[in-house]
Design a protein that fits this description.
The protein is mainly alpha-helical. The protein is built from 23 helices and ten strands. The radius of gyration is 24 Å and the shape is globular.
Length: 581
């Protein structure tokens, strides 16, 4: 399948930033603004340079929440935010380089010798990317300067525009570009699959409106995506050999007959959810991928996050930098799809110590042999992981649970019962990610599997939440919600729920369905200060009782600080700093 070539040489990127561009592998010795922006290929390469700015995996934001953790402070101030220690010395994304690149393209493409129809479409693609950037900026910083033209380097210093102005700009831009963009592309030159579509514009607008609390527009835009018929949840029809082996072992964790669980639906739900990020499923043809960040096995167009940072270090060359927290594991439903299990931390520590004593000192091979003969169904600690939501088993590597489908061998256990204190590349939380971990064969510590920047599951959750806010827990809200449950092999939601009960249900479903994808940062804030304070206060422990992080919420964390580096360049920002900094 033809892919968008995002390849950017540093020199070419700088030339584009200064009003001219080259994306060829061997650029000419001289490129000038006067000689560029003439041909169709100039426009094509310039547009690809804009696509190179598109976000991909966003687990970094999630590590500032109660879902995930990073124990390496040099990789970012994530733990500082969890502890309410963020300051103006840290920059959580306050910058406008990509906005300048987008504005430059929108202006310069006017001079290119292509049809007006193609120019309009290309401008619409870049206007989408600009709105996306502004959504991320205003979500983090509230007021930001709204820049829609390429400014002179020595131009006047800008003030921050009101939040409502920025939000209205985002919603208006996305509504307008949705009327210009095509529903699909034919994969020819200038029309590669993976480019921004009408559906992507509606989906991003639904996300933005939900974040802004504009539920009428969120429902409207999400409904447009659903009714387009262009997208559906990804499902597997059959299992490969590795999945069949794991499915045969699930009796150690699921009482299918006793709980009345459809085994086939549950198993396929687990692997449908896991597989949508992997191998041949990770491309723009996946019906769940509304917007795709593509990667290729060449130059620097690769994804380190999924191949190195979220992978466990034991045997598989990962850094264990980004690790799921106990708070997230506790959020996964029981198999009834309604109950959230409560476990006393002291009881967990005691039962964990007992089971890990059985495998103390074993290497991976010894561990595999020992666990194979253990009756995990009877163990007190492992009862925490019995009869849980299928997405738990697809998302988390937890103790004593095997994983057959990997790129680094035929079998893997999350191993070493002590975890924390070993070295910098061990998970401190007692868990590692399984969800989104790349299964691409190892090549230079990077993944080349494409990543769904927006997927249909998010749109269904947005629609359900907005519908409940606007109308209530009616048949349409339930239908959207239950599509996710059906895909996961989980029971459908109760039909008789009040608005508050329905919102609680959707919020937790959203948390586990979108876990690791970056949405939790915005979600805990838009749910309000009381919710955030409850979620982001208190100690998070590993199963062995070690304190991973002492969470401390402060209302100032509703927004991130304008960084001192920006204030140094524009001192007036110091008089308009966000509250509490």
């Amino acid at each position: 399948m033809k892919k968008i070539n995002y390849t950017l040489l540093i020199a070419a990127g700088l030339l584009f930033f200064n009003s001219s561009c080259s994306l060829v592998v061997d650029p000419p010795s001289e490129i000038s603004a006067e000689g560029y922006w003439k041909t169709e290929n100039d426009a094509f390469l310039g547009l690809n340079a804009c696509y190179a700015q598109m976000p991909a995996m966003d687990i970094w934001d999630e590590m500032t929440t109660d879902n995930a953790h990073s124990h390496k402070p040099w990789e970012g101030p994530y733990e500082l935010i969890q502890q309410n220690g963020i300051s103006t010395q840290d920059n959580q994304g306050y910058g406008f380089t990509d906005i300048r690149i987008f504005n430059n393209f929108i202006e310069k493409v006017e001079t290119v010798n292509v049809s007006e129809e193609l120019k309009a479409r290309m401008r619409a693609e870049v206007r989408f990317l600009r709105a996306f950037s502004y959504l991320n900026l205003t979500s983090k910083f509230g007021k930001v300067p709204l820049i829609t033209s390429t400014l002179e380097y020595n131009g006047p210093l800008l003030q921050r525009d009101p939040v409502e102005k920025v939000r209205n700009f985002i919603l208006t831009e996305l509504e307008e570009v949705a009327m210009i963009l095509p529903t699909t592309y034919n994969n020819s030159f200038l029309n590669e699959k993976g480019r921004i579509t009408q559906g992507a514009a509606h989906a991003l607008r639904a996300r933005a409106a939900l974040y802004f609390g504009n539920y009428a527009e969120a429902e409207k835009s999400a409904d447009a995506v659903i009714k387009s018929g262009q997208y559906q949840l990804f499902t597997v029809i059959s299992l490969n050999a590795a999945q069949q082996k794991e499915a045969a072992e699930l009796d150690q964790f699921i009482d299918f007959e006793e709980k009345g669980i459809d085994r086939d639906a549950f198993v396929k739900g687990l692997f449908s959810y896991e597989s949508l990020w992997h191998n041949e499923n990770a491309n723009p043809s996946n019906p769940e991928y509304i917007l795709t960040r593509e990667f290729m096995a060449q130059d620097d167009n690769i994804d380190w996050g999924r191949y190195v940072y979220i992978r466990p270090s034991q045997l598989v060359q990962g850094y264990s930098s980004y690790e799921p927290m106990q708070d997230l594991i506790d959020a996964y439903w029981d198999i009834d799809g309604q109950t959230i299990r409560k476990v006393d931390p002291q009881q967990r520590q005691t039962s964990f110590a007992k089971i890990t004593a059985e495998v103390e000192g074993l290497d991976q091979n010894g561990y595999i042999a020992k666990v194979a003969g253990m009756d995990l169904k009877k163990d007190a600690y492992m009862k925490e992981f019995r009869n849980r939501d299928s997405r738990l088993y697809a998302s988390i590597l937890f103790p004593f649970k095997g994983w057959h489908e990997t790129d680094f061998g035929t079998f893997y256990y999350r191993w070493d019962p002590k975890w924390s204190g070993k070295d910098g590349n061990e998970s401190w939380t007692g868990y590692s990610y399984r969800k989104m971990v790349s299964l691409t064969p190892y090549q230079d510590q990077a993944s080349v599997e494409d990543y769904p920047t927006i997927r249909f599951a998010e749109v269904l959750l947005t629609y359900a939440e907005a519908r409940v806010k606007n109308t209530g827990w009616d048949g349409q809200a339930q239908e959207a919600f239950n599509k996710l449950r059906t895909r996961a092999g989980m029971p459908k939601a109760p039909t008789a729920l009040g608005q508050a009960q329905a919102l609680d249900l959707i919020r937790n479903e959203r948390r586990i369905e979108l876990a690791g994808e970056g949405h939790r940062y915005e979600d805990i804030r838009r749910y309000g200060n009381d919710y955030a304070s409850k979620a982001m206060s208190g100690d998070t422990q590993a199963p062995n009782g070690d304190i991973v992080v002492k969470k401390a919420w402060g209302e100032r964390l509703m927004l991130m600080p304008i960084p001192q580096a920006a204030i140094d360049l524009n001192p007036s920002l110091g008089q308009d700093q966000n509250p509490g900094y």
